[in-house]
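User: Hello, can you help with two protein structures?

Assistant: Certainly.
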Amino acid sequence: MNVHPLDKLTLAVIGLGYVGLPLAVEFGKSRPVVGFDTNALRITQLRAGHDVTQEVAPEELSEARHLSFSDALEDLAGCNTYIVAVPTPIDVNNRPELTPLIKASETVGQVLKQGDIVIYESTVFPGATEEVCVPILERVSGLKLNAGFFAGYSPERINPGDTAHRLPSICKVTSGSTPEAANLIDALYASIITAGTYRAESIRVAEAAKVIENTQRDLNIALINELAVIFNKLEIDTEAVLKAAGTKWNFLPFRPGLVGGHCIGVDPYYLTHKAQAIGHHPEIILAGRRINDGMADYVASQMVKAMLRKDISVGQARVLVMGMTFKENCPDVRNTKVIDMITALQDYGITTDVIDPCANTSEAKRQHGIELIETPEPASYDGIILAVPHEGFRSMDVAEIRALGKTPHVFCDLKSVFDKGDSDLRL
């Protein structure tokens, strides 16, 4: 069975979130694409030219002249190449939650035809495409891999909120279930990726490459977080140490902080899940996860200690948290560790207000029960935590922030946005 020619590929992108939508838009500038999502509201918004994730501007949507949006299964029937870009989260026990991936595979299986291609972009553990997804495609479609259809894996590398590193300017790893399919899939992505592509030798290699990208970052941040705890006990400023160490050419510029989001704080658990399934206990990876998952409680405890040193009554205290999203300049509140810090503060009896000009307010309420405030009252807070350094917060004068506090108050500059002397506490 031969693959379709490159110029005959008609695409469907399944899942129109932070990963799927930019992909659909880029491909939709030059070839027919159906952007598919089961969220009817999302489809309505996109048809109206509005992306709530803020990853794609209205003018970019209008440039994708060959892109249509749908939540109807029958609209996928005319496609012959399916790219699955659905979330792969973890459950409350930090185990892979594959339900979105399974449901997407079942959806594609219903319209899969002889010679079609299915490419997965969702982050998974090595082996998931061939061990979990392909059997579903075969069962639902009645076709067999490489005899009835082809599969591929090309891991997403989207960085939400990053205007410098966009989809076309990030090198794309590709792979396929046969050499012929791998070449076609690589050529398909090469048609939109100006930074170039890298064809991995197998689907499992491509899956493994993706999952270790964020595992490596997670471990590096965990090291810096542990160093920050040590330096705090030694009464040494961590940022000053990192600046000094950074004068060496090969010192990696990581900084301490809360590690959330749907990549760095999640992907390592996919790898450790697979490692444990084959009988290996991954000690270093899980140790890094424990350190990073514990930083929210650590920040809360340090805030309380700083307040007590100023004779502030913790049980009666009111703290303003500036920023709630998992990273700066991004509306996404999924898996944000700021909520863990807020919960820890509330466990001490502290009342918290949260302001975030970037956050999706409805999602903050739906996912975390947080009612964001718009305008904090001056001289109202016993503590202020600059948790997420959105550009809007960075552009403020430190005196403007401190004016929101009572006399006395504690100002925690979690990410060292301002000079050391401008805050009472930082990691």
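That covers the first. Now for the second protein you mentioned:
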Amino acid sequence: MSTPDLTTAPQAIDPAFENVWDELVWRGLVHVSTDQEALRALLAGDPITYYCGFDPTAASLHLGNLVQLLTLRRIQLAGHKPLGLVGGSTGLIGDPRPTAERTLNTRETVEDWVGRLRAQVERYLSFEGENAARIVNNLDWTAPLSAIDFLREIGKYFRVGTMLKKDAVAARLNSDEGISYTEFSYQILQGMDFLELYRQYDCVLQTGGSDQWGNLTSGTELIRRAEGASVHAIGTPLITNSDGTKFGKSEGNAIWLDADMCSPYRMYQFWLSTADSDVIERLKVFTFLTRSEIEEYAELVAAEPFRRAAQKRLALEVVATVHGVAATAAVIAASEALFGQGDLTTLDAETLRTALEELPNATVGAGTPVVEALVSTGLVSSLSEARRAITQGGVTLDGERVDDETATVQGSLPGGVSVLRRGKKTLAGLFVG
């Protein structure tokens, strides 16, 4: 089996840029912001404290959140001090969606998810050195606050007219669903987070998705009114494919960062399938490759798109960042072996099983005839078609051509599985039990 090249880009600021702000702009990470010249000067000066918040509305973060995690890391690499906020209080309410009210999760569920998300956020930041990261939970300052104190100390600074103009609120007000006071108040809570972090840590910058711009500016405006201070916000673009479809979604199934919710193999295949028209922008946003390296890949995409060199590098970089080099090596080996470029018998059993779960598959007993397995997996529609395929030499089992119609499945690969192939590229997995 060929050994995959697992040389990954070091996490560093690209020296081609004078300022981390310039690099963020080049990577396409600034869709909207407060004063750009002031931000550029701020990020070029002495270390500042900045933050991004993550609400526990699921048991894992996803690729959209990865944009924020990597943005936090890039700014930290420039010498600034990140705060990763996990929303123990805001997660109990949920950011208003444009279409319908969220279903409120139980306190126990949210508490569990807070722990899971905290562990994920911690993996992307450094907690050493003079600009060590810190994780905070907004429940710590929200829970002790009474409703009266909340209204007197925070609510008095917000103007209902301004709140009604926020995009998500306006969309809901114009829908049949309407919006509850609970979700309407979310922007106040997020604004209060920025104010609290400003007071506790002198935090002067918040980053987030551009769809959160109304919530981000609720914090900048609250600090202006309550403290008379000017702070900043950066809204990163929502990542979409060149055809306009939503990025990271497949029939409602997000690409999660938790390996139990989305296997490293599935994530690797997701990145491999990136369109040529999207891959260079993905390299800018999701990797630490330098500008010169990415420009080289742009040339390869134009000259030799069939090699998919940029997609392979993108998949390597992101999966290694999310799941580690060892898991990535196993995934690449499995991907190559499944498609005829390696020895299936040498693969890691767990990685092979998760890879086969992404293929058409079936559970069969040991000794099941191959012709029946072909039908069970959907590679053929009938036993007669299965026999013809074998006769024509178009079927392989565990990498060996099947010549005998009476051949059986034994689950001889690591983990007690088998791999069926019809033709060159049509694969199916067999879980033998």
